[in-house]
Amino acid sequence: MEILMSIVIGALFASSVYLMLSKSLLRIIIGTGLLSHGAHLLIITMGGLKRGAAPLLGEKAASYVDPLPQALILTAIVISFGVTALFLVLAYRAYQELGTDNMDEMRGNEAND
Amino acid sequence: MINLLVLPLLIPLLTAALLIFLAKSLKAQRILSVISAIGTLTASIILLLTVKKNGIQTVNVGSWDAPFGITLVSDTLSALLVTTSSLITLCVILYSIRSIGTARERFYYYPVVQFLLVGVNGAFTTGDIFNLFVFFEVMLMSSYVLIVIGGTRIQLRESIKYILVNVISSALFVIAVAMLYSVVGSLNMADISQRIAEIGHLPILTVIAVLFLIVFGLKGAIFPLYFWLPGSYYAPPVPILALFGSLLTKVGVYSILRSYSLFFYHDQAFTHELLGILAIITIIVGCIGAIAYWDVKKIVIYNIIIAVGVLVFGISVATEETYKGTVFYTIHDMIVKAALFLLIGVMIKITGTSDLRKMGGLMKKYPLLGWTFLVASFALAGIPPLSGFVGKLLIVRGGLAEGEYVGSLVVLLSSLVVLYSVIKIFMNGFWRAPKDYPGEENQPVMSLWVPGAILVLASAFYGVGAELMYPIISQATDALVHPAIYIDAVLKE
């Protein structure tokens, strides 16, 4: 199971890097979304998958799943959700103002200020 | 008062929430912001005195015991940094009142500054590695808003790059924390340190240490990862630049200092050597930038990078003396960088340009501004008895004692470059023939000068009163040199 997850995470990272290296702003933002998905999957995998019963009082079991990675992942998801929303709004606003979504044309130089 | 160390987080947080509702009334916003900043400063000074007297203060949030819940830890180092950040934020708010413009004030400038302070103070105070990530995000979210507030073309263009860089570094932070957790099984920094000491040195820990270095290095702008800083910091107006330049990069440096002294100290031959090499290149790159530009903002921005290099060099040598120097120099650099940014902000306001070649002759009309700027420049370059001297002396002496001759020499030579770059501003901006600038009579020069002057004064006292500060600095260093002090304080029950 962990091996499978690792492959999925690797695929997510690879596609996010590919997307982020493109010039279109929208593709870059989708890339950051995939990157954070990969990171979240990594957290859950690092805690160990299917190692025991649910960590609840009253559950009688020899071993329990570590609940901490799930708490972490929740926090991280909320944060990346907020950042992505802000990023999308900003990209739209920048598109309106600058008239382009091509990163090549957003270089900082004196003629462009 | 056991909850004292929560106050520097709680006051700005509640103020920010309150200020959002007062968006319509600028006067109420300004008054409340200043009062709250003074309150935060007072609370952090009381905290600093308490920590000095009673040792490290901890709060287990929600009364979950130390290794399991989130712990807030205030040792002398973090209390010092919290105090400095609160002082700087107060001065920046005072400066903003007359300079940031009503449009930005209406669009939640003051609440966001308070949120930024929550993030910065939280990052300095937390004792939990995942909580550090959360406070980083609070800080970054506020900085995203601050960098784009006003919505000018250059701000929009640069903010996209800034956000992109930081989103990637946040993802890396999550990855690094996940890997550390899978190896160590704890998130409490004291507990991590203890467990790493128990399991001994594993090669994967070096990988994780470098991963953390990439994350914190992106925030702190050390050599290969500094590329975003000059462009992004150039975009926002001066008060925001002062906040960013003095606080945000130092949070990155603090995180490197904390993690590399508390738990990644087992493979110094690799990690600290790497840190040392990067530090030297960082200084050199910063020096090249500081000399190259004729734009006052750019010159001081590149000085940030030089200072980060000096600090990281201090961390890389990792002896008691260089730690002392690093702590001393961090505080100095935060204060004096903020002062310099605010003072060049006044120059830009008067002349209406940030290009040095179009300035000149300010000394005739604004002698006070000129002299404070000169004192700030000398402090930045480290001329005794001003505050930069003591920190650099300790770092260089510690470096030489450890045989790090190249690094120590680069630090020394960088002082000359720093001096040259800021004196270039002084000579071209304040000397030469006076010019007339359209609209300069309407600028509130005196009230803009005061916050900068307060910071210069603080920096001068910090330098002249180094003898008084020394016991506090050595107390702050103790916990860095002997992680056991920190661990015992957190896990005592």
TrEMBL record, chain A:
<keyword id="KW-1133">Transmembrane helix</keyword>
<feature type="transmembrane region" description="Helical">
    <location>
        <begin position="69"/>
        <end position="92"/>
    </location>
</feature>
<feature type="transmembrane region" description="Helical">
    <location>
        <begin position="28"/>
        <end position="49"/>
    </location>
</feature>
<keyword id="KW-0812">Transmembrane</keyword>
<feature type="transmembrane region" description="Helical">
    <location>
        <begin position="6"/>
        <end position="21"/>
    </location>
</feature>
<dbReference type="InterPro" id="IPR050601">
    <property type="entry name" value="CPA3_antiporter_subunitC"/>
</dbReference>
<dbReference type="InterPro" id="IPR039428">
    <property type="entry name" value="NUOK/Mnh_C1-like"/>
</dbReference>
<dbReference type="Pfam" id="PF00420">
    <property type="entry name" value="Oxidored_q2"/>
</dbReference>
<keyword id="KW-1003">Cell membrane</keyword>
<protein>
    <submittedName>
        <fullName>Na(+)/H(+) antiporter subunit C</fullName>
    </submittedName>
</protein>
<keyword id="KW-0472">Membrane</keyword>
<comment type="similarity">
    <text>Belongs to the CPA3 antiporters (TC 2.A.63) subunit C family.</text>
</comment>
<dbReference type="GO" id="GO:0005886">
    <property type="term" value="C:plasma membrane"/>
</dbReference>
From TrEMBL, chain B:
<feature type="transmembrane region" description="Helical">
    <location>
        <begin position="107"/>
        <end position="124"/>
    </location>
</feature>
<keyword id="KW-1133">Transmembrane helix</keyword>
<dbReference type="Pfam" id="PF00361">
    <property type="entry name" value="Proton_antipo_M"/>
</dbReference>
<dbReference type="GO" id="GO:0042773">
    <property type="term" value="P:ATP synthesis coupled electron transport"/>
</dbReference>
<keyword id="KW-0472">Membrane</keyword>
<feature type="domain" description="NADH:quinone oxidoreductase/Mrp antiporter transmembrane">
    <location>
        <begin position="128"/>
        <end position="415"/>
    </location>
</feature>
<keyword id="KW-0813">Transport</keyword>
<keyword id="KW-0812">Transmembrane</keyword>
<dbReference type="GO" id="GO:0008137">
    <property type="term" value="F:NADH dehydrogenase (ubiquinone) activity"/>
</dbReference>
<feature type="transmembrane region" description="Helical">
    <location>
        <begin position="300"/>
        <end position="318"/>
    </location>
</feature>
<protein>
    <submittedName>
        <fullName>Na+/H+ antiporter subunit D</fullName>
    </submittedName>
</protein>
<dbReference type="InterPro" id="IPR003918">
    <property type="entry name" value="NADH_UbQ_OxRdtase"/>
</dbReference>
<keyword id="KW-1003">Cell membrane</keyword>
<feature type="transmembrane region" description="Helical">
    <location>
        <begin position="70"/>
        <end position="95"/>
    </location>
</feature>
<dbReference type="InterPro" id="IPR001750">
    <property type="entry name" value="ND/Mrp_TM"/>
</dbReference>
<feature type="transmembrane region" description="Helical">
    <location>
        <begin position="269"/>
        <end position="293"/>
    </location>
</feature>
<dbReference type="GO" id="GO:0005886">
    <property type="term" value="C:plasma membrane"/>
</dbReference>
<keyword id="KW-0050">Antiport</keyword>
<feature type="transmembrane region" description="Helical">
    <location>
        <begin position="162"/>
        <end position="184"/>
    </location>
</feature>
<feature type="transmembrane region" description="Helical">
    <location>
        <begin position="448"/>
        <end position="473"/>
    </location>
</feature>
<feature type="transmembrane region" description="Helical">
    <location>
        <begin position="406"/>
        <end position="427"/>
    </location>
</feature>
<feature type="transmembrane region" description="Helical">
    <location>
        <begin position="6"/>
        <end position="23"/>
    </location>
</feature>
